[in-house]
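Per your request, structure below.
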């Protein structure tokens, strides 16, 4: 297991190879159980990323897919570790039941509610329900010994209710001008071992809340308030200027989502703000700890971990997402994360979904850019770099591509006033080669037919590319 590394592949397979109890904190933001589907161009304009959280098999199919992955997360956590699962209302209840079974009900800590957007009113149709403006983060500990660092909102940024509370409670001022309040030092339950007199003051009925040693220490530091009446009780002094802020509860409505104009925006449709991940990481880990995100997307958890001095591991099944994370970390921190991936061979390529196959051809092999048009693109999937002429590329994830594909491609590149173009496929039929040869001889169009095998071998240009082979490849 390498840290500060991005692993490309199925997180279940990758996590199964990691050693048990090796991770301090896991944040998981899996595909939601909904029916949304997206297709977007990354903000660098190069690669297309289709994103879907579609689960035709129903909630049972979704939880069956999630369960082994959640069990691996539990196995990887140290005894002091914590787990955060980001989800929405579609599967919140089902995932809570599943996590109770895996982590144990006693290790459930919080259901955090994050207000991810501002509510909107009715539009064309009258609504029959309240609008949904929140996500949920299910927080579990591996054991009772899990790390927890209380987080605070600075007093200057706290809500008005908290500010009014401080104003009401901190009503005293000492000789140095410091504002303070006095607080009870009585034990809420009987403490016979802490029932002692101090400087002539009798203990409360249940005893003091602190030991004699601490009482003397606080007295020396000037943190005790002694009433003039000896029948009164000693109280603790709390200074206003030592208050860290308003303790953060489980409703997070102070972290704004990523807007269309945000500098953070990477183009990823479900991108979370860095501030959200910083809060989680600060709460449940310390500097030098290892943070894992098994559904890494555009790498926000990795960015937050790097900023906060943690080691990190990201996993994503999408080659495009992994490359985006790599670029993002390099741009923001001037570091090169180690990208761990299996051998890129024909079996690897055949497992790629259509958009990833397209990116692999256009970006990885040609170093070009994908077409940004989602319709009316005349079958053009991308373009070679301008230094190579900016020629159109068509990608076919199929075998035995025929004459009609080449014929249509001719029309497309003629409309674009180009004299050259590339078609990529697993194999071509005899008719495709004949049509490419005819286009060159009669129209002066160079249509390069290139197989995936040839791309894997590093073969893009070829002086004999248009000569019809004796046998179709």
């Amino acid at each position: 297991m390498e840290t500060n590394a991005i692993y490309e592949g199925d997180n279940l397979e990758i996590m199964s190879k990691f050693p048990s109890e090796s991770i301090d904190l896991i944040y998981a933001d899996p595909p939601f159980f909904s029916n949304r589907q997206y297709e977007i161009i990354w903000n660098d304009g190069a690669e297309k990323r289709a994103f879907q959280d579609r689960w035709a098999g129903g909630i049972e199919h979704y939880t069956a897919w999630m369960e082994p992955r959640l069990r691996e997360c539990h196995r990887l956590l140290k005894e002091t570790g914590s787990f955060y699962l980001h989800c929405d209302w579609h599967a919140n209840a089902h995932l809570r039941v599943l996590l109770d079974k895996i982590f144990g009900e006693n290790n459930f800590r919080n259901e955090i509610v994050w207000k991810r957007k501002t509510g909107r009113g009715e539009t064309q149709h009258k609504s029959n329900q309240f609008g949904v403006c929140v996500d949920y983060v299910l927080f579990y500990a591996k054991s009772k010994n899990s790390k927890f660092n209380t987080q605070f909102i600075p007093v200057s940024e706290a809500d008005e209710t908290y500010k009014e509370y401080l104003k009401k409670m901190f009503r005293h001022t000492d000789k140095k001008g410091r504002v303070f309040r006095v607080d009870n030092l009585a034990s809420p339950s009987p403490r016979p071992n802490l029932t002692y007199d101090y400087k002539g003051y009798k203990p409360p009925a249940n005893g003091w809340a602190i030991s004699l040693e601490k009482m003397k220490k606080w007295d020396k530091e000037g943190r005790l308030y002694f009433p003039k009446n000896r029948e009164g009780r000693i109280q603790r002094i709390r200074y206003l200027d030592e208050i860290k802020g308003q303790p953060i509860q489980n409703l997070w409505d102070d972290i704004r989502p990523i807007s269309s104009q945000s500098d953070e925006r990477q183009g990823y449709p479900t991108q979370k703000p860095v501030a959200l991940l910083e809060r989680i990481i600060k709460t449940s880990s310390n500097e030098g700890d290892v943070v894992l995100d098994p559904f890494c997307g555009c790498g926000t958890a990795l960015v937050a971990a790097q900023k906060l001095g943690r080691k990190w591991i990201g996993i994503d099944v999408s080659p495009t997402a992994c490359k985006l994370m790599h670029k993002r970390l390099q741009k923001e921190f001037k570091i090169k994360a180690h990208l761990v991936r299996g051998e890129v061979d024909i079996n690897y390529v055949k497992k790629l979904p259509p958009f990833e196959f397209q990116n692999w051809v256009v970006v990885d092999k040609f170093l070009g850019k994908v077409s940004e048009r989602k319709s009316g693109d005349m079958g053009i999937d991308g373009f070679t770099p301008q230094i190579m002429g900016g020629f159109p590329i068509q990608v076919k994830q199929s075998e035995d591509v025929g004459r009609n594909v080449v014929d249509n491609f001719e029309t497309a590149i003629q409309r674009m006033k180009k004299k050259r173009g590339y078609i990529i496929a697993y194999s071509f039929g005899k008719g495709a080669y004949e049509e490419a040869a005819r286009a060159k001889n009669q129209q002066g169009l160079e249509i390069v037919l290139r197989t995936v095998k040839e791309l894997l071998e590093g073969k893009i240009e070829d002086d004999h590319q248009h000569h019809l082979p004796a046998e179709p490849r």
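The chain has three domains: 5-148+248-342, 155-242, 349-456.

Regards,
D.
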